[in-house]
Amino acid sequence: MTLFPPGDNRRETRPFLPDQETGGYYDGKNMALFEEEIDSHPMVSSLLNKLANYTNLTQGVREHEEAEYEDGAKRAGPQMGTFIGVYLPCMQNILGVILFLRLTWIVGTAGVLGTFAIVFMCCACTMLTAISMSAIATNGVVPAGGAYYMISRSLGPEVGGAVGLCFYLGTTFAGSLYILGTIEILLTYIVPSSGVFVAARPEDEAWATSNNLRVYGSACLALMALVVFVGVKYVNKLALVFLACVALSLMAIYAGVIRTVIEPPDFPICLLGNRSMKNDKFDKCAKTELVNNETQTTLLWALFCNGSHLNATCDEYFTLNNVTEMPGIPGLLSGVIKDNLWGSYGPAGVFVERRGSVSEEVQENLVMDKPYVLNDISTFFTLLVGIYFPSVTGIMAGSNRSGDLRDAQRSIPVGTILAIATTSLIYQGGASVGKNLVIGTLAWPSPWVIVIGSFFSCCGAGLQSLTGAPRLLQAIARDGIIPALQVLTHKHTLMACLCLLTANGEPTWALLMTVGICEIGILIASLDAVAPILSMFFLMCYLFVNLACAVQTLLRTPAWRPRFKFYHWTLSFLGMSLCLSLMFISSWYYALVAMVIAGCMYKYIEYRGAVKEWGDGIRGLSLNAARYALIRLEEAPPHTKNWRPQLLVLCKLDSDLEVKHPRLLSLTTQMKAGKGLTIVSSVLEGTYMGRGAEAKTGEQRLKAAMQEEKTKGFSHVVVTSSLRDGFSLLVQAAGLGGMKHNTVLLAWPAGWRGAPDYCWKNFIETVRETTSAHQALLVAKNIDRFPGNQQRLEGTVDVWWIVHDGGLLMLLPFLLKQHKVWKQCRMRIFTVAQMNDNSIQMKKDLQMFLYQLRLDAQVEVVEMHESDISAFTYEKTLVMEQRSQMLKQMQLSRNERQREVRFLRERESAQLIHDLNTASHCSSSQRAAPEQVQMTWTKEKLITERNRHREGVGVKDLFSMRPNRSNVRRMHTAVKLNAAVLTKSQNAELVLLNMPGPPRNAEGDQNYMEFLEVLMEGLERVLLIRGGGREVITIYS
User: Fold this and answer.
1) 492-493 and 488-489 beta bridge pairing
2) pTM higher than 0.90, yes or no?
3) What is the mean pLDDT of residues 741-769?
4) Would you tell me the crossing angle of helices 103-137 and 569-586 to the nearest 10 degrees?
5) How far apart are CA 484 and CA 487, in angstroms?
């Protein structure tokens, strides 16, 4: 079926589109049915085009590289493969200062088996972390931030921000470690005589070395920061050169190890007894030597004796023991591995002795001027773990370059795991070299290969750290989750400054902050002291990577679809446990400090940070936990001991959609010592299609008011055809499952006498519905006079316990007194004794009851004797009924007037139709026709007669009325109770009263409102309480 004939070029009328033409007739003709929503629902082709052109900013951000293309040519897509993009960067970051400067010392101290255990634990930790990281990295694109991005998007902004800062600190202190290693190699092996500080005495060597490390380290840091500032492209170009040096060094080491099988190197070690000695102050390992057949003393003799002649007085240990020389590197076939299977730990300052050698021991004090080899620091297994662990870090280097990879989801798992496997084999092989050895002596063809390789390795790793850390901080600042980064600094916030880039693409302010923190690590001036610090931060980061993978796997969310399939949640938990164990094994106090830092950052971001919804695993875990808890709550109703007020707060919104009574939210906050559910709701009259946007705006205004009053809960605005239906809907359907409200809080309709009838009728219907639903009801009179959260009251909270309806009347004052507003107030409980009650016994029983309830309150029994109904009560009841009757007549008159006007209009229409039908009749008939349909009553006559009749009868009836006996009795009760309350509690800060139930017959609704008004008359703040029909407080434990 076609709307136009063939060849007709007219466009069809489109009821869904505006009349204005936005393009040619044939533009998008095939998809015209969807063009109304094309802005919010793009075509599939457009979506795929955006995905294909997506460019990813990595931790090595690439804005500066655009300067290389001055002609504006478009940069080619990512072309880096697994080897260049992942394997080599991981290798360069893993192999570094520890391998060259500390591995042989660790082997010599821990022994072969101990070193194998250390290497295995650390490598297993990084391998399990790499498996978890591969799963997360292949579950989608990983933009700038690397590990921080993965953790924050998996575990939420709080955990991500805290761990991201720890990872940043770890990366920054890693830069300090590499710079200290660089300077140590420079001053120890390359130019040992270039120190600025020189020790005058042997005991001052440590002081001089530390100061030299500080001076040269600071200069090296400034130089490296300048290189990074100039451009990270130079760092990337030097990376391959540095990595080539590392590879040549490793090849030289293993070539030297193989060479020891054929020809062990000449590296003698001098022993005095079983004590090792440094040979830098003597040339021959002997006490004496033959020169021209004459025995002469050596330089070693002069170090232990007070003269160079043979009869000089010498050190006792030197005299009793012989000097021997042994090969330092005896070769693989010499059994050196077997001799060094076990470790030898000791405190600082202890002699390094050869195990198995015999010597004559003497009692002597430690003398620093002797050339003995001593322990620099106290050594134990856990210390070595903390020092060694930085040598296996760097596994995140590949994931941080995901935007530069041709196929990131394939390259990251393969390259990272291969790099860890390779370096693990290298370290395991290095662990079997031997004890008390210098790794450079193994190198073939020259030790300088190792010296130069280790120097450039440390330089390259330091540059990589100074390049990556600022970008990590920049990624955290861009997310805007840490308010501390928003402190104003001149024209920019600190967050904006950290995000600023120079013309060559460097985050300048973030780089300066990184340099400042890195300088702190350099001032420590001890590689062994800095290593455990960064170990803590890296281990914490790895721990949360494993946790993120485990949480995502166990949640089984639809979005968890990693391409890397070789993972399991048990491996992630094993890696997480291993990380936590290594933290406390390395240094329990550093571990606690790192956890405290992360915990403080977590709470700070949670309390003050920006709200982010990243679809994280913690959110999913919360949803699963909430679902499980709701299902469990459905199994049985809560016990009395678990009862707490779950509030449904019915608020009113004014014409501007602002909360009309914000003190209602203040009261809600003050009652939340029970920590129950809070739902703040409001109703808009109309249709949802017409007022849906206003409903959403109203919800936002409710949330803002709740935040201002510190009310924790949920807000909801519904749109219904009438306010009555909306209130009924909320009372019935608010909440979910076991987390439904059990108490309704609303304000007393002040000025209800002059308001339309539906105002107080809606109130009474709400009272009836809460009673029918077995829900408690709280009605606050003069709600605008209630205290705000900043006020502090000192007075009394008076409870008038007239009838028992569950104990809510006594529980609420206790909850209010937990809040600082009411904390200084005293609680008083009044009860009423009738004529046949023993008021003294009632007081004792009530005091015992309060003691069993653990409530501290003053008790008073008010006696209300039977008395005649006063003329005031009789008159007040009569006026109430007369007013009610008059309002009914006025309402009836309005209804009759509307019906009569409608009837007259129908008769006039009938008259007009009759005249038209008889227009063609004869003249006599025409004259007679109107007389046949003449109305007996005209409109004016009917209204005049009705008013005359009503005036006479209505006034007569009103003045002849006698009040209803039941109403008189109820009014009598209200007047007497009000008088008693005014006598005792007129100056109370808050009065809590039992709320009488509404009448069963709707005809008495208006009288019910009058009774409540009389009951509360003259009181400043009143809270009417009506229980839900169940016990909410108990004396049992």
Assistant:
1) antiparallel
2) no
3) 86
4) 150
5) 6
